[in-house]
Design goal:
By secondary structure, chain A is α/β, with parallel strands linked by helices. Helices cover 33% and strands 26% of the residues of chain A. Classes of the chains: A alpha/beta (357), B alpha/beta (471).
C-alpha cells in the first residue's frame, strides 16, 4: 500500500491565539505565540497504524512537511518533494500532485489544507485528514488522530464527501459563511462507522436521484425544481442530465436547465415565470446539518416562502453524523415555521423523520 | 490446539482410476477431487461436526433470535411415518395432515388474538413480506394509494426491507431517550400517505411499550394499519396478545417461539395472522373445515396469491403443534414468565460491569448492554464476543440494535437454568476483569477455538469464495 503523507506545518497555529484560522496569517500567528500542532498530531496518528510496517510505503515531503515525523516511526518512506524554508498552500498542492499513484493521501491540517489538496488532485486519490487545523467542518477528517490509524489499516471502500471551508475574513468578524469548495474521495471504515450499511453512501445518493427523476417523469410537468449545492444534490443534477453546478443553486423546468448557478434574483424570476409547482431540493451542508442558511443563501427566505414543497435529501451516513438538522435563514419567523420535524429522503424507498431546530 | 484439515488435504493425489471404456480424449487426468474411502469420509465429517457450536452444545443467547432448546419429542413427532405424505395427494387421503394444520392455525389465532392465519411463509422475513403484500392488496381494493410504511429505528433490519420489497416507501422514526416510540414524532410522521406502522413489542431493547394503545390510535386515526413483528413473542406469550394491542396483522417465527430448530438447523416457518378485515387477502390456498372434512380453499378472488410451493414447511408445523399441545395454556404462559425472569436476573448480575440504559425498567425477554466503558481500554464489543468463544459459550448478538453503541444484545431464553445463566454472567464479569489486567488477551481472542481471530479486513479485501489447489 502506497500512502502519500503531507503535513501543513502551520495548520492550527492561529487557533490558540484567537485568529479563527491561519490562512494567510501564519506569520502573525507565530508572532502572537502560536505553536505548530500538526506535526505532533500527525505523529500520534502514524504510531496508531498497527502491524502494517511491512505493508505500507509512504511518499512524503522533506523536513517539517513529513519526513521529520516519519523518521520517528517504524515506517519506510521516500521523499518526493523538497520543502522550502517558508511553506505556503502552493507547496501542499505541488506535493499532492506528485502523489497521484498513491492508494491514499494522509494529511495533517484543517479545512484549508483539505481544500488545497482537493483543488490539486480532485477525486483521483482518496484523502484522509488528521485533524490539526482551527476549522474542521469538512467530513474528510477522522475524529481523533488515534482513529486515523485504525481507518488506514481497515478501510475497504471510499465515498464522495463535500469539502467545506468558511470565509475566514467574515469569520473573524463573527459571521459564519460556510461554502462547499469541492468533492473528495474519503475512506469509509467499518472500524469507525460501524457496519456495512452506512458505507454505501455513493449508491444511496444515486438511489435518491433515481427516485426524484422517476417522480419527475410521473408528476413533474411544468414543476420548477430549485436544486441546492452539494454532492447529494449534484447526483440529482446529473440524473436530470443537466450541466449543473456542484457549489451553486440550479433551476430546472421540464428536465431543462432554466438558470445555472442562480442567485436570489434569478430564482425569484424563475418562480414568477413558473406555471406549475415550485419544489426546493436541499441537502444538509457538511457535518453541521444546516438545511438553509449555510452555503445556500441564494435560496433566500423570499424564495422559500414561495415554494410549494421543500424536500430534504441526504445519504444515510450523512444522517448518522447529523442527528438534528438546523436552519438559519435570517428570517426568524420563517425559521420558526420550518422548525419541528421533517421527512428526509435517504434512498429510493427510504425516508427518515428528523428534528429541525 | 487440534489441527483441522480440508478434505482435499487428507486426500492422496491422483490414485483415482477412470472407468474402463471411456475414450481417452474425454478423460481429465488432473481432477482435483478428494480421494478418500467411505470410513475416512465419515471420520472427516464427524470431526468437523465437533468443531461446531449449537444450542445443544452450550448456551446460545443470541438476542432477538430466540435460540432456545428444542425438545426432542417434537423431532420424534415430525419423523412419524404418518407424516410421510405427498403434497399432490388427494385431500381425502391427507385429512390428518390438514387437521394438524387447521389445529395449529386455531391455536395460533387464540395465542395471538388474530382472526385468521396462513402457514405458508417459510421464514420470519417472508412472513413480514407476506403481511406487507396483504396490506398493499387491502388498500388497492379500496382504491387508496397510500404508499408509506413507518418503521422505528430500533426495528429489525428486515422490516424496512420487507416493506420496500412490497413497493412501499419506508419512513424511519427515531426512538425517544428510553428506546420507546416517540409519540410526538409518530404524530408528525403519520399522514394520508401512511399505509402501516411496523412494530416489535417488546422492542429490540427488550422493553415493552406501554403506549401501545395510544400508538394504535394515532396510526388508525390516520387511516393506517399496524403490523406486529412476532420475533419477540417469547417475552409476552400467554400474557398479552398482539390482537388485543390493536395490531391488524403479524408474523410469527415458529423456529423461535415455538421451539423448532433455528438458523442452519432450520428450516423455518413464518405464519402470518390477520384480523377479519384482512382475511380475504391471505395467500391461497387456506386450510378450512366444513364440519365434516378438511379441504384446501383455492377460490379466493382477492388473495395475494401463493407465497410458497404447496403449503409451507409442514414438518415444522408438526413440531410446533406438538410443543403447543404439550405445554398447554399454562405452560405457554410460563415461557414468558421464565424468559422475563431470566433476562432480568441476568441484568441484575451484569449491570455493574456492563453499561445498560434505564436499568430500573424491567426487561422482557432480552437486554442490550453497551461495551462503551470497555472501549476506553480499546476493547470493543467484537473483542468481548470473540473472548466468550474461548470459554465455550456462544457470543450474543453484537452491534444491534444500531441505536446502542457497542451493543451486546443478550437473550438467555426460558430454557436456561439459573446455573447456566450464572456461568455466562461469571464469564462476562471475568472478561471485564481481564480487560483491566491484560486487555491484549481479549483484543486477540479467541485463543482456544478451532479457528483463531479472523482478519476480517484482509478477508474482505481479498475475497476468495472457492477452494483452489495450492500452487
Amino acid at each position: 500500500m502506497k500512502i502519500g503523507f503531507i503535513i501543513n506545518p502551520v495548520a492550527g497555529m492561529g487557533g490558540r491565539v484567537g485568529l479563527k484560522g491561519t490562512d494567510g496569517l501564519a506569520d502573525l500567528a507565530a508572532q502572537l505565540g502560536g505553536k505548530p500542532v500538526s506535526l505532533k498530531r500527525a505523529e500520534e496518528a502514524l504510531l496508531n497504524i498497527k502491524d502494517m510496517e511491512n505493508e505500507i510505503v509512504f511518499l512524503t515531503c522533506s523536513g517539517k512537511m513529513g519526513e521529520k515525523v516519519l523518521r520517528n516511526t517504524p515506517f519506510r518512506y521516500q521523499v518526493i518533494y523538497q520543502t522550502p524554508e517558508m511553506t505556503t498552500a502552493e507547496d501542499t498542492k505541488k506535493a499532492a500532485r506528485k502523489m497521484l499513484d498513491c492508494d491514499l493521501i494522509l494529511f495533517s491540517g484543517g479545512d484549508g489544507t483539505a481544500c488545497d489538496i482537493v483543488s490539486a488532485i480532485g477525486k483521483q486519490v482518496p484523502i484522509l485528514g488528521i485533524p490539526a487545523g482551527v476549522k474542521i467542518f469538512s467530513p474528510v477528517f477522522c475524529i481523533t488522530p488515534r482513529e486515523c490509524g485504525r481507518i488506514v489499516s481497515s478501510f475497504l471502500e471510499t465515498a464522495v464527501k463535500d469539502v467545506l471551508d468558511i470565509d475566514e475574513e467574515a469569520y473573524r468578524n463573527n459571521e459564519l459563511s460556510v461554502r462547499i469548495k469541492g468533492e473528495a474521495l474519503v475512506p469509509v471504515s467499518s472500524a469507525v462507522q460501524g457496519g456495512k450499511e452506512v458505507s454505501s453512501a455513493v449508491d444511496a445518493k444515486r438511489d435518491i436521484a433515481e427516485r426524484i427523476f422517476d417522480d419527475f417523469r410521473v408528476e413533474g410537468k411544468d414543476v420548477l425544481y430549485i436544486i441546492g449545492p452539494g454532492t447529494t444534490t449534484m447526483e440529482v443534477k446529473n440524473r436530470f442530465g443537466i450541466d449543473g453546478t456542484l457549489l451553486g443553486v440550479d433551476a430546472v423546468v421540464n428536465g431543462k436547465m432554466v438558470q445555472k448557478d442562480a442567485c436570489e434574483r434569478h430564482l425569484l424570476k424563475a418562480i414568477k415565470n413558473c406555471h406549475g409547482k415550485v419544489v426546493i431540493f436541499v441537502s444538509p451542508i457538511g457535518s453541521q446539518g444546516f438545511i438553509f442558511g449555510r452555503g445556500n443563501q441564494q435560496i433566500s427566505p423570499e424564495v422559500i416562502k414561495q415554494a410549494d414543497e421543500i424536500k430534504v435529501i441526504a445519504s444515510p451516513d450523512k444522517l448518522e453524523s447529523t442527528p438534528t438538522l438546523h436552519i438559519d435563514t435570517g428570517d426568524l419567523e420563517l425559521d420558526n415555521k420550518l422548525r419541528g420535524h421533517i421527512k428526509v429522503q435517504s434512498g429510493y424507498h427510504d425516508f427518515a423523520m428528523m428534528k429541525v431546530v | 490446539m487440534h489441527e483441522f484439515h480440508l478434505i482435499f488435504e487428507k486426500s492422496d493425489k491422483n490414485t483415482f482410476q477412470p472407468c474402463r471404456g471411456i475414450p481417452e480424449h474425454l478423460i481429465r487426468h488432473n481432477l482435483d477431487i478428494p480421494e478418500l474411502s467411505e470410513p475416512e469420509v465419515i471420520r472427516h465429517y464427524t470431526e468437523l461436526s465437533t468443531a461446531n457450536f449449537g444450542v445443544d452444545t452450550g448456551m446460545y443467547p443470541l438476542g432477538s433470535c430466540t435460540m432456545k432448546y428444542n425438545p426432542r419429542f417434537t423431532e420424534h413427532l415430525a419423523a412419524l411415518e404418518t407424516n410421510m405424505v405427498h403434497p399432490l395427494q388427494d385431500v381425502s387421503t391427507i385429512q390428518g395432515s390438514l387437521h394438524i394444520m387447521y389445529l395449529l392455525k386455531h391455536y395460533l389465532k387464540t395465542i395471538c388474538g388474530m382472526d385468521d392465519f396462513t402457514l405458508q411463509p417459510t421464514a420470519g422475513a417472508q412472513g413480514e413480506f407476506t403481511a406487507m403484500t396483504i396490506i398493499k392488496a387491502y388498500f388497492n381494493s379500496k382504491e387508496d394509494t397510500r404508499n408509506e410504511v413507518i418503521v422505528p429505528d430500533s426495528a429489525h433490519g428486515t422490516n424496512p426491507k420487507s416493506a420496500a420489497m412490497a413497493g412501499f416507501d419506508v419512513v424511519e422514526i427515531p426512538s425517544d431517550e428510553q428506546g420507546y416510540i416517540d409519540l410526538e414524532m409518530l404524530t408528525s410522521a403519520v399522514s394520508e400517505k401512511t399505509a402501516a406502522l411496523m412494530l416489535t413489542n417488546p422492542n429490540t431493547l427488550g422493553l415493552f411499550d406501554k403506549n401501545i394503545l395510544k400508538i394504535a390510535d394515532i396510526v388508525h386515526g390516520a387511516g393506517g394499519l399496524l403490523f406486529y413483528d412476532g420475533a419477540n413473542l417469547n417475552g409476552i406469550i400467554g400474557k398479552t396478545r398482539p390482537g388485543d394491542m390493536g395490531f391488524d396483522c403479524m408474523n410469527l417465527n415458529l423456529h423461535k417461539t415455538f421451539a423448532a430448530p433455528h438458523g442452519g438447523g432450520g428450516p423455518g416457518s413464518g405464519p402470518v395472522g390477520v384480523k377479519k378485515h384482512l382475511a380475504q387477502f391471505l395467500p391461497s390456498p387456506t386450510v378450512e373445515y366444513d364440519g365434516e372434512k378438511y379441504y384446501l380453499e383455492y377460490d379466493r378472488p382477492l388473495s395475494v396469491g401463493k407465497m410458497n410451493h404447496f403449503y409451507g414447511n409442514y414438518p415444522v408445523m408438526v413440531k410446533s403443534l406438538g410443543y403447543i399441545m404439550r405445554l398447554g395454556s399454562g405452560g405457554l404462559r410460563r415461557i414468558a414468565e421464565f424468559a422475563v425472569l431470566n433476562s432480568n436476573y441476568m441484568v441484575s448480575r451484569l449491570s455493574n460491569t456492563y453499561d445498560i440504559k434505564n436499568v430500573h425498567i424491567p426487561r422482557k425477554h432480552e437486554a442490550v448492554f453497551s461495551a462503551l466503558r470497555q472501549k476506553k481500554f480499546d476493547v470493543s464489543a467484537l473483542d468481548i464476543a470473540k473472548r466468550l468463544i474461548d470459554y465455550g459459550v456462544h457470543p450474543p448478538t453484537i452491534y444491534f440494535p444500531l441505536i446502542v453503541k457497542e451493543a451486546l444484545m443478550i437473550e438467555p431464553t426460558e430454557t436456561e437454568s439459573k446455573e447456566s445463566i450464572d456461568r455466562y454472567c461469571d464469564i462476562l464479569i471475568n472478561i471485564y476483569k481481564e480487560i483491566g489486567q491484560d486487555a491484549e488477551v481479549v483484543r486477540t481472542a479467541p485463543h482456544n477455538a478451532v479457528v483463531g481471530r479472523l482478519d476480517e479486513v484482509f478477508a474482505a479485501r481479498n475475497l476468495i469464495l472457492r477452494w483452489s489447489p495450492a500452487e
